[in-house]
Write a structure and sequence with these properties.
Layout (H helix, E strand, L loop, with lengths): L5 E4 L13 H14 L3 E4 L11 H15 L5 E4 L5 H14 L3 E4 L9 H15 L3 E4 L2 H4 L5 H7 L5 E7 L6 H9 L7 E5 L4 H6 L4 E4 L6 H12 L3 H10 L1 H10 L1 H11 L16 H13 L5
Parallel strand pairs: 1-2, 1-8, 2-3, 3-4, 4-5, 5-6, 6-7, 7-8
Helix pairs in contact: 1-2, 2-3, 3-4, 9-10, 11-12, 11-13, 12-13
């Protein structure tokens, strides 16, 4: 079974306004990630706009990515859906296309209870036979996983990891320790919210699920390698150099900023899925100015 660790890079999913995935643009985004040798690719995560795509288009994106990666690294695929049966089918599609694991968020309209989320995850893991990473993203799902629920889920066959938000750097050490105490050995603890993930790695987080790595993998890999080598000072110095990018992410949202970067850098021509709009011209100028000032870092 796949072990999620190190750097997981999360690219956008370019598409047209009708929701059709631009496979060539997706390949252009994935090639630098493969060349950089990231530890895994997170396809159709929140940065990949998974809720905005039909089942057919999700399948199309996964098939294209798996063919391009050709076994060089595992692909983690977002399989979240409102209905449990839809999530099962999405996970089965991802498994059949060659994905290594599914990233499952408790997507909901009616607020869910812990028992409902437990049953949802248990059913998807059992019926899809795809290894599952718990996606804790309360900012979008409005559901917050407790350590107790993560502990219960970590003992379900096929649930192998959790992707948690590192929203407060000062709280990260306590959160990592609290989860480590309730999950079995070998269960992977990973973190998102790029601007606090260096600290999460330094206190024992195993995986950085990174938006920035989906467009600039090298600097993120440098941080992960510095942490692995025990070079805390270097990891923090590299992270400090990225503060202008982190500020852009916090001001305009990482999704909108990465779309702007992809276009400004000529990697692809793409807009976020409607109703999300591209950044207005003044914000795009700020992104451009930050990139120009960080050429040597990125």
């Amino acid at each position: 079974m796949v072990k999620l660790k190190g750097l997981s890079a999360f690219p956008i999913t370019p598409s047209n306004r009708d929701g059709l995935v631009d496979v060539e643009a997706l390949r252009a985004l994935l090639k630098p990630l493969i060349a950089a040798k990231v530890d895994s690719i997170g396809l159709l995560g929140s940065t990949g706009s998974y809720p905005y795509f039909s089942r057919d288009q999700r399948r199309r994106a996964v098939q294209a990515a798996v063919a391009l990666v050709d076994g060089k690294m595992p692909i983690l695929v977002g399989v979240g859906a409102l209905r449990t049966d839809d999530a099962v089918r999405l996970a089965q599609d991802a498994r059949d296309a060659g994905a290594a694991a599914g990233l499952l968020a408790p997507v909901s309209y009616t607020p869910l209870t812990d028992d409902e989320v437990f049953e949802h995850f248990q059913t998807v893991a059992r019926e899809s036979r795809l290894p599952i990473c718990i996606y804790d993203n309360p900012g979008t799902t409005h559901f917050r996983f407790t350590p107790d629920l993560i502990g219960r889920l970590s003992r379900v066959e096929g649930i192998i990891a959790v992707k948690s938000p590192a929203l407060d750097a000062s709280a990260v050490p306590g959160l990592v320790a609290e989860l480590r105490a309730v999950v079995p050995s070998g269960f992977s603890l990973g973190y998102s919210a790029d601007w606090n993930c260096t600290e999460a790695l330094l206190v024992g987080g195993e995986t950085w699920y990174s938006v920035l790595a989906g467009i600039f993998p090298k600097v993120c890999l440098d941080i992960v390698r510095a942490v692995a080598a025990g070079d805390t000072d270097k990891a923090r110095q590299l992270d400090e150099r990225l503060q202008p990018v982190w500020q852009l992410f916090k001001t305009f949202s990482s999704l909108r900023v990465v779309y702007a970067i992809a276009n400004l850098r000529g990697i692809c021509v793409a807009e976020p899925p409607r109703p999300i709009l591209p950044l207005p011209p003044d914000a795009q100028r700020k992104v451009s100015d930050v990139l120009a000032g960080m050429e040597s870092t990125l």
